[in-house]
């Protein structure tokens, strides 16, 4: 039974596919209420409230995936998740419209002082002259961060007759032109805007982006809005610029610490606030919960997810094309790791023929995961394989060649160890399967599956018989056997596929046969 912990409030309608699945148990409780069972969950679903820290990940020993029912993953230690091989996914566009609408509601409320007027009337006052606002029409709106939400805010601003200026260092000219916005530098935006709204993620670069230096570059009387993440506008700087009257008003949906407690910003009459409500609509919550529920189901079925933060994302179409090579590469990694039972410095992979045209990042990660699995104690999979390889000083590279070298497709693997170099070539043949066609310098043809026995010997009459007799005497059945040699009378190999694994004594017995140089058990 798969167990999923839903640690923050989520739409039941969105979670329906998980709740309806009889093979899944969904537990809707806070992390603190299931401390004793944390190691039993396969998946964890959160919004922004639950902090997915390294300590929590350590406790959740069986965790395979974290689903963020929303956009921002700044409450998740993605690096730690990656190290532990835990996939992190989010729901990137389910709450875009709601957050853009909330931003707009905040903007209108801010310049017309609606929350203040509301409180006044509710206090039985009727003070119309105290609440004279300004129009949005004709004003210059500066949007910092022009992604999904920023661009939806821009559309609404244009409909209100505003001039829109955008700063986003990652925005392509073509996209900006298509949407028809004025793309400018941060300094230009700060100098021109009557109202500034931020829509970036919280990163090292965006933390304190609107701090003392940049706030000083804004127009006197500027309005500021943050419906993205607390900290993008530096709260201490904001206090100073409100106190000196430079900033006319601020709308905040988010805070550096949530809840903000008795924060000094809350004392300003011209600061309006909501408790992180950008995504809090029925529609957005159904959307994001549906998206993560669907993605988690897909993941649990062993299929690729499309909105992963720490894995290359794959469409179903691309996944179907790479799936066979993904499996072949995994087996090649497992075989190479067992053959090269020594420290290795480099793994070089060459993709040839049709596979060279595919998205190989995933295939490479699969190969690395196969290679590293027998060498590391912790979970290793396509999420953390590249990171673990780097941590262990194993360099890896990919090369591509249009020429399949006699095969429609092939993957060639070269492993550089401290004392020796090992090469292997594999191919996938449709309706037939995976074949290893080159192993350790020998042309051969075997299926990388099951209990394999590799024997390197001198090419002499009777060698196969000697091996066969010993195995037969010990009731070990040989399922298949392939041979290869470099030249008649030279070095040769046998690759046997056995019905059961060999024990150590039998390996030693085979090693004692004269003219046998190497005996290796390989398990795939
Ligand atoms: N208040 C709420 O409830 C919600 C808040 N959010 C927050 O809104 C923010 C934006 O979300 P989306 O638009 O969906 O994300 P997005 O990823 O579509 O857009 C972010 C944009 O910021 C830009 N950016 C990154 N670094 C930048 C920098 N240093 N300077 C300027 N621009 C930069 C990126 O190029 C990108 O275009 C996120 O922080 C997200 O967590 C999202 C949903 C709800
Ligand atoms: O999606 C986001 O980034 C949000 O900030 C929404 O947060 P929430 O899911 O409402 O806690």
Summarize the structure.
This protein is of the alpha/beta class. Helices cover 32% and strands 25% of the residues. The chain folds into 3 domains: 2-93 and 283-301, 3-Layer(aba) Sandwich (Rossmann fold), CATH 3.40.50.720; 95-273, Rossmann fold (3-Layer(aba) Sandwich), CATH 3.40.50.720; 316-523, 2-Layer Sandwich (60s Ribosomal Protein L30, Chain: A), CATH 3.30.1330.
Task: Outline the structure in words.
This protein is an alpha/beta fold and 524 residues long. It has a seven-stranded parallel sheet, with helices on both faces. Strands 14-13-15-16-17-18 form a six-stranded mixed sheet, with helices on one face. A five-stranded parallel sheet has the order 2-1-3-4-5. The radius of gyration is 31 Å and the shape is elongated. It has helices at residues 12-19, 54-59, 78-83, 96-112, 114-122, 148-159, 173-179, 186-192, 212-215, 235-243, 282-300, 316-339, 361-372, 385-391, 463-473, 504-511; strands at residues 2-6, 24-27, 43-46, 65-68, 87-90, 140-144, 163-167, 182-183, 195-198, 222-226, 247-252, 271-273, 344-353, 395-401, 409-417, 421-429, 433-439, 442-446, 451-458, 478-485, 491-498, 516-523. It has three domains: 2-93 and 283-301, NAD(P)-binding Rossmann-like Domain (Rossmann fold, 3-Layer(aba) Sandwich), CATH 3.40.50.720; 95-273, Rossmann fold; 316-523, 2-Layer Sandwich (60s Ribosomal Protein L30, Chain: A). The structure holds 1,4-dihydronicotinamide adenine dinucleotide and 2-oxo-3-(phosphonooxy)propanoic acid (HPV). 2-oxo-3-(phosphonooxy)propanoic acid (HPV) is lined by residues 47-49, 69-72, 95, 276, 278-280. It catalyses: (R)-2-hydroxyglutarate + NAD(+) = 2-oxoglutarate + NADH + H(+); (2R)-3-phosphoglycerate + NAD(+) = 3-phosphooxypyruvate + NADH + H(+). This is D-3-phosphoglycerate dehydrogenase. Pathway: Amino-acid biosynthesis; L-serine biosynthesis; L-serine from 3-phospho-D-glycerate: step 1/3. InterPro entries: ACT-like_dom_sf, ACT_dom, ASB_dom_sf, D-2-hydroxyacid_DH, D-isomer_2_OHA_DH_cat_dom, D-isomer_DH_CS, D-isomer_DH_CS1, D-isomer_DH_NAD-bd.
